[in-house]
Amino acid sequence: MVAITEAVSLEKEGDIGMLWIDNPPVNALGFPVRKGMADGIAMAMKDDGIKAIVVICKGGTFCAGADIREFGKPPKEPHLPDVLTVFDECTKPIIAAVHGTAFGGGLETALSSHFRVAVATAQFGLPEVKLGLLPGAGGTQRLPRLIGPEKALPMVATGNPIGAAQALKEGVIDEIVEGDLAQGAVAFARKVLAEKRPLRQVSRMTDKLDKNPQIFADYRKQLAKTARGFEAPEACVKAVEAAANKPFAEGLKYERELFSQLMMGSQSAAQRYYFFAERQVAKIPDIPKDTPLIDIKKVGIIGAGTMGGGITMNFVNAGIPVTLVEAKQEFLDRGIGVIKKNYDITASKGKMTQEAVAKRMGLIKGTTKMEDLADVDLVIEAVYENMDLKKEIFGKLDAICKPGAILATNTSYLNVDQIAAMTQRPEFVLGLHFFSPANVMRLLEVVRGAKTALPVLATAMAIAKKIKKIAVMVGVCFGFAGNRMFAQRKREVDKLVLEGAPITQLDKVIYDFGFPMGPVALLDLIGIDLGWSKETSKGETMQQILCEAGRFGIKNNKGYYNYAEGSRAPKPAPEVDEMIKALAKKKGYTPRAISDEEIIQRCIYPIINEGAKILEEKIAVRPSDLDVIWVNGYGWPVYRGGPMFYADLVGLDKVLAVMKQFQAKHGDDFKPAPLLEKLVKEGKNFASLNV
Ligand code: T1G
After folding, report:
1. 108 is catalytic
2. Topology of 502-587 in CATH?
3. What are the domain boundaries of the chain?
4. Sheet containing 2-5: which strands, arranged edge to edge?
5. pLDDT at 691 exceeding the cut of 90
6. What architecture does CATH give domain 2-264?
7. Topology of 299-476 in CATH?
């Protein structure tokens, strides 16, 4: 075994050279790997005893891509495209032996090899587009040559991986190896030599290159719906189109140009930032990595409504049995019926087999007796937002559940410490704030009570990962982090409506910023009557006026907008415009034209400011955690990073100046957070707090 660099070595299995890459944790193609690969091939070429070369990785995966941490720093030769040209032009057969995830530059390395073998569990993907980039080492040129542009487009422009079976079927790989990968790869190499197979240089293949412009036109139509606002997907299509229409060398050059443009743009900076932010949330400074976990074998959920049903699905999807408690059998039956209907819809789309539906449903045990929760390891209370009811439930749970069982509330706003105080086990009580629809939204706020024990918190973070949630640790305050920040935007939208901003303008500005829908349309979707009380309604707010007029939103085809039966497409409602005008007049507003810029600033800067307060109060660990909350809980466009990343991009000094202007005009709702003032004074930004 010859060590070529600290990350790459060359050893011989008879006449097969084994180029081992060992760069934990994911064999990212950092400088020591790239240099070792180039020098290793050169060394193997000089060695007459080596007739073929296997490229293979130690650890859990084949190369998972370029080292994202190197981006933004001065690139260091050898650059990956150049290393892969060495592979491509090597006159001895190179066999890539893949396990784990051959992603990005890793798959490009395999594509530049002459042959590819893999274990059955391997995955192949080009996720660069999720970083606001495109494959920058020939992936956009080689993959279409191997499988054709039509099949290459979704892999390049969505970044979604394919498994080994599909890779074999499409021709991305040549063989699936049973048993030991290294031995299988050596055997394959020997077969190539024995059969004197010609070297398959993907860069020279042309038979799969279909130039049909309709392929690209059709795909662009699809992208318009799914990738609104993103720059990278269109660049991916352009690069694949070039593969179909240009010689390899020209296509490679064009790919490089597109890659460089994206790398220099703010969208890629935001998406690369987000990639690490999403992993940083799991790191909580005062919870050691080796904190013991509680084994969650069985879960109890109280409430079979929208939230309880959705939460149940998360656990049974992960194979964890659920005891679902409802007060009345009819509510229980309805709740379980909704779960079954959800699964049947998924199955009808071919995304799940009926067996899988049956398996999941078999993991749900419905009951009207809370006593049936005596043997569960975790209870999640998901009844409606009433503190008295929650307190009563936790008092009962404390008596019913076994010692050491974790008791969690799904409350969106209420004080978790007050709920914990109803038990003798506050150290086992916390909040697990799921976002609706709970079986779809990836965000989970883990609400840390004053007395919640570290193993309970660590278990919550671990179980969240198991049910495929992105868990963000937050502290106890009204609305925790996400909803507390969201309330700032809601307040401003209500005011802007009365100040004269047409609701269609408000919705267009926020939609064009990149949110999935405008804030007013969102109110119609959520339900205008959420939190409304008929008994106390006095016609003093638009919510009260609309609800008193029976306008509850999409649910009854009329809210701020009108809706055709069964449609979610908002239609103008002149009658509502009159209601707005009347209320504005009654409250003394003089309607005025409001600029798009003011709408953005009024709706977004207070979110940033509240985020700063949340950080000052240590309700959240770091600014990037708040960005992860907003991307996953509120549809903040990931190509803008999140509110705190966006604030740094705008410039905190500008945010502060605008907040002060608004404070002078609109009052203390815009009073700058002390942290915002402090960072501006020190010439720092929120990124400086992302430790
Ligand atoms: N570069 C640097 N660090 C990386 C990394 C990468 N590519 N991928 C993962 N890490 C770190 C991650 O931050 C974490 O660090 C640890 O590894 C474990 O990751 C030229 C330009 C491979 C599926 O986009 O999808 O190639 O928190 O928690 O859940 O065309 O990591 O422990 O300090 O995610 O087992 C393209 C990104 C790059 C793949 C493993 N490749 N990675 O998932 O572990 S651009 C990607 C992943 C490129 C070329 C272009 C996942 C994974 P820490 P993890 P995991």
Report:
1. yes
2. N-(1-d-carboxylethyl)-l-norvaline Dehydrogenase; domain 2 (1.10.1040)
3. 2-264, 299-476, 502-587
4. 2-5, 8-13, 16-21, 52-57, 94-98, 115-118, 175-176
5. no
6. Alpha-Beta Complex (3.90)
7. Rossmann fold (3.40.50)
Nearest CA to ligand 1 atom 16: 25
Residue 393 Cα, ligand 1 centroid: separation in angstroms?
43
Ligand 1 probe mutation, 26, 264, 622, most atoms within 8 A of CB: 26
pLDDT in tens, 496-548: 999 999 999 999 999 999 999 999 999 999 899 988 889 999 999 999 999 99
Residue 279 beta carbon below 6 angstroms from any ligand 1 atom: yes
Q: Which atom of ligand 1 is nearest to the CA of 25?
A: 17
Of the residues 108, 255, 278, 492, only one is catalytic, namely: 108
Q: Give the per-residue pLDDT at 385.
A: 87
Please indicate whether residue 127, judged by its CB atom, sits closer than 6 Å to ligand 1.
Answer: yes
Cα distances from 143 to residues 29, 125, 140, 201, in angstroms, run 19, 11, 6, 12
Mean model confidence pLDDT for the chain: 96
- Ligand 1 pocket mutation, candidates 34, 68, 112, criterion most atoms within 8 A of CB: 68
Residue 566 pLDDT: 87
SS3 state of residue 233: helix
Contacts of 506 (CB under 8 A, 6+ apart): 493, 496, 497, 518, 519, 520, 599
Q: Are 56 and 182 in contact (CB under 8 A)?
A: yes
Q: pLDDT tens, 586-619?
A: 999 999 999 999 999 999 999 999 999 999 999 9
Residue whose entry in the numeric block shows the structure tokens 């059998």: 329
Statement: residue 569 has pLDDT above 90: yes
Q: What is the pTM of this model?
A: 0.93
